[in-house]
Amino acid sequence: MKTFTILGRVLPENYPLPRDLKRTFQWDVPEQGLVARMSVIVEAGQVSVRCQVETFSNDVFAGAYIRALDATKAMVDVFGFMEGVAYSVVLDKCIEPDGSVRQLVVAHHELADLCKAFGENDVDEVIDLVLAEPPLFQALSDLMASIAQSHYSPISCGRAVESIARMIAGPNKTGSAVWPPMREALRIDQAYLKFITHHSKGPRHGDRIALSGDVTTELVARTWIVMDRFLAYRRAGSLPLPLEKFKVLTG
């Protein structure tokens, strides 16, 4: 067996949990032939998740990290509900089977290549645009949640895209009428957006269906691109994006 430990903490540090917590459970992923035994300890605000697996790899670790975060959050959220406190969980270190220490950052660097609307020299301008439009910074926050917690991706992607549609359409359009102005302004066809809205519909209405990793990855990437085009649209004075520069997104 291989053993590794994921470490972190519960915030806020100045309002600790009423007591320490400990749970042990088995995590099975039949499609990967994977069985893991996980022990979660939350003690004095510090989190330790001990994982035992047959083999250790980056894929195994990625799956274990999600389960470790889910389990720890579930335990902590019970106290958050009881006390009315917005506790949060940060897991930021892993002691690997060979004893080496890995610092953890939740990042999907491939998404950086999808940000084409602005560069480092334009950040201040974009920050001003975002600060001036509360629905925009809320949509951006939703989008960041899609990579912070993968289970939330369908919900947050659906919310972000619909927020963008409503910002473009304005207050006088509701329901299905909000989508055509967005498709025209950002050069996106109906099928491209439907992939996002279809997969987000169930989770947004309480049906917590499990999506494959490939679908979740595509959801986030498409929403990232839609947000990027919307920022380009706002930077251009809210004029429809030129077709010679922005190819219509299809499918």
Characterise the protein shown here.
- The chain has 251 residues and is an alpha+beta fold.
- 45% of the residues lie in helices and 19% in strands.
- The protein has seven helices and six strands, in the order ββββαββαααααα.
- It has helices at 58-83, 123-131, 134-148, 153-169, 179-186, 190-204, 213-235; strands spanning 2-11, 21-29, 34-43, 46-53, 88-95, 101-103.
- Strands 2-3-4-1-5-6 form a six-stranded antiparallel β-sheet, with helices on one face.
- Helix 4 packs parallel to helix 7 and helix 6 packs across helix 7 (213-235).
- The longest helix is centred in the first third of the chain and has 26 residues, at 58-83.
- The radius of gyration is 21 Å and the shape is elongated.
- The N and C termini lie far apart (45 Å).
- The mean pLDDT is 92.
Describe the biggest sheet? Answer: 6 strands, antiparallel
Strand residue content? 15-25%
Q: Write down the Rg.
A: 21 Å
Can you write the helix and strand succession as a string? EEEEHEEHHHHHH
> Distance N terminus to C terminus?
45 Å
By secondary-structure content and strand pairing, the structural class works out as alpha+beta
Q: Mean of the pLDDT scores?
A: 92
**Percentage of residues assigned to helices:** 40-55%
Shape: elongated
Individual helix count:
7
Strand order of the largest sheet: 2-3-4-1-5-6
Unreliable parts: none
Count of DSSP strands: 6
